[in-house]
Design goal:
heterodimer; A: mainly beta; seven-stranded mixed sheet; four-stranded antiparallel sheet; globular; B: mainly beta; six-stranded mixed sheet; three-stranded antiparallel sheet
């Protein structure tokens, strides 16, 4: 079955950077697009970024454009997001999610998330 | 930026029909998707392409879309359906993906 496990979260100071990882299993990772979505404490879901199966298509939410970088390693079944110049408002649970198809369709499976807390 | 609008809350008694709406200007041209998120858990997909139900989702869940509004209907809502529900879609270009603000469904 599809499994997605996020890691790399923690407490980080404002202005610093962090790399979040997502380990995928149970499906052919290189055939599917992958998303990052975040959820601030007590708030709704916010879509963050998408990368197509081969990395040729990338889109970011306006709120993170220029600060977040999505990437993937199909040889390792891994998805990443580098989050830089962190702000307190970036505090959230970060989920990785599998896309229905190779590009950027809807999300069909989600991981359990990793919490990032931006605080001095 | 593109927005999807949902009511903040819907409340029904067990066995009643719950309807959760999602409005967006691009919905006449773009599919709506629905996610259920129970407290402390990751979201799960409960409806895709406006009206298709993933395997394992009870038949009491159904979806429709007309004009600029998509609707998730839970016929005969159960206590276990109590959750936050989010719609998801894209703007007309297909490049800007967005979730609605979420609707808290209370069944009691």
């Amino acid at each position: 079955q599809v499994q997605l496990v996020e890691s790399g979260g923690g407490v980080v100071q404002p202005g610093r950077s962090l790399r979040l990882s997502c380990t995928a299993s149970g499906f052919t990772f290189s055939n599917y697009g992958m998303h990052w979505v975040r959820q601030a404490p007590g708030k709704g879901l916010e879509w963050v970024a998408i990368m197509s199966h081969d990395g040729s298509y990338i889109q970011y939410a306006d709120s993170v454009k220029g600060r977040f970088t999505i990437s993937r390693d199909n040889s390792k079944n891994m998805l990443y997001v580098e989050v830089s110049s962190l702000r307190p408002e970036d505090t959230a649970v970060y989920y990785c999610a599998k896309s229905w198809d190779r590009t950027g369709s809807h999300l069909d499976y989600w991981g359990q998330g990793t919490l990032v807390t931006v605080s001095s | 930026s593109y927005e999807l609008t949902q009511p903040p809350s819907v409340s029904v008694s067990p066995g009643q029909t719950a309807r959760i709406t999602c409005s967006g200007d691009a919905l006449p041209k773009k599919f709506a998707y629905w996610y259920q998120q129970k407290s402390g858990q990751a979201p799960i997909l409960v409806m895709y392409d406006d009206r298709k139900r993933p395997s394992g989702i009870p038949e009491r869940f159904s979806g429709t879309s007309s004009g600029t509004m998509a609707t998730l209907t839970i016929s005969g809502a159960q206590v276990e359906d109590e959750a936050d529900y989010y719609c998801y879609s894209t703007d007309i270009s297909g490049n800007h993906r967005v979730f609605g603000g979420g609707t808290k469904l209370t069944v009691l």
